[in-house]
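SAMPLE LOG
Freezer: B-3
Tube label: C17
Construct: single chain, 465 aa
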Amino acid sequence: MNNSEDKKTNDIDNLSQGVSPIRTADFMREKIKQRPINKKKLLRRTLITVTMAVVFGAVACLTFVFLSPLINNKLYPEEKPTPVALTAEETVTDEMQPEDMYADDSAIAAEAASAAIDMASNELNRMQKEMTTHSVDVSDFKSMYTSLRDVANDSAKSIVKVTALSSDTNWINNPYESEGSVSGIIVAENGQEYLILVKSAALNDAQEILVSFVDDSSNYAHLKMSDTNSGFSIIAVQEKDVSDETKNRIKVANLGTSNSGTVTGNPVIAIGSPTGIQGSINYGFVTAGNAALDLPDTSYKLLYTDIYAGSNASGAIVDLTGAVIGVIDMSHNDSNLPNVLCAVGISEMRSLIEDLSNGTGRSYLGLHGQDVPEEIRKTQEIPEGAYITRTEMDSPSMLAGIQSGDIITRINGETVMSYGRLVLELIKLHPGADIKLTAMRQATDGYVELDMEMTIADSAVGKDK
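STRUCTURE (predicted):
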C-alpha cells in the first residue's frame, strides 16, 4: 500500500472518531470584499434623476397653467357681459285722425288756424291773469335755483372723477407719482362692469386709472377701447369691486337728445368740471346746436352755450329733466370764443358708445363730406349723394382712389342720398369688411360712374379689441 492510500485510511478513521480531517494548518479563511463605488456613474445617475424631475415638474406646471383655465371654464363657465344697447331717442309723431283722411287742404288749414288763434288767446289771458295776481320776489328765484341745483345733484350721481396715475422722475432722479383728473360719465352697465365715457387725452401715459364716485369712494379701472377718430374712450370698473353702499348712490346717466330743433334756446346745466374744478355747476342756454364737426366718417354736432368755462372743462351738459344732451369737449371750440362752453351732441355719439363698450371697434374709411343743398344741386346738375370734400392721408378711401369732389351714390349696392346716410350705413358695418363704393366723378362731358373696392379699417384701439 502506498502513502496516498494510507492517508485516505487515516482520514476515514478520523471521521469515524469525530475528528475533522482538515488540519489547522490547512484551514483557509475567505474574506468578502465590498465592491468600490463608481462615483462618476453615481453622479451621472443623480444628474439624470434631477433632470427628469425638473422636466416633469415643468411639464406639469405648463399643463396646469394652460389647461386649468379651460377646465375651470368647463366646470364653472363665466357669465358673459350683456351687450350694451342704448335706448332709442324718443320721437314725436302726429297721429292722423279719421276725419283728416276726408278733409281737404283748405279745411285743414282753416281748422288749424282757428285752433292756433284760440290757443294763443287763452294762453295770453292766462299770462295776464297770472301777472296781475302774482308778484315775483326773492323767494321765487331761490326756489327756482334750488330746483335747478336738485337736478344737477341728481345728475351728478352719474359723474365720476377719472385720475390717470403715472410714475415719473423729478430733477434729482427721485421717483414720484404724477396725476391728472377729468370728469367722466357712467354711460352704461353690462352686468359685470360700469362703463365710463371719458376724453382719451386724459389717459395719455397712464399706468393706472383711478375712478372716484360721487360718494368719494375710489376703484381702479381699465381701458376698454379708445377711438382715435373722435378722441373718446370707454373705461370700465368691475362691479364686484364696488361696495353696495356706493352702488346705491350712483346711477347710469340718462342719455337724452341733442337734436338742434329741440335743444337750441333751451336752458341747460353743466355738471362735472365745467370750470375745470371737480364738482362745479354752471347754468345757461344752448345758443347753437347744428355746428358740424369736421371729423372723418362722422356726423357729430357741436353744441354751443352761453356758459363761461375753463379751457380744461370736462363733464356733461344736461337738460332740466337731468338727461345728458352733450359731452363737454373744449378741443373743438371756436378761436373767437375760447372760453365759451361747448359739447359734442349725444345723439350722434350713441353708436360710438355702443361700439366702444362692446369692443366691436369703429369703422373707418377716412372720408370727409357734406350734403349739397337741393337748390344748388338742381341748378348745377350735381348728382344726389354724399359730397366728398377730402380724404385722410393713407386712409382706405384715399388708397382706393376716392378724390375730393366725388359724390358717393351707393355703398354695397345701397343707395346713398346724403353724407349723413353714408355715415349711418358705415356704422352698420364692421372693421375688416370688404365693401364697394359707387361714386360719380365730374368729367369734361358731365359725371361718370366709378366703382371702387376697399377694406374697412378700424379707428378704435384698446385692451378689449
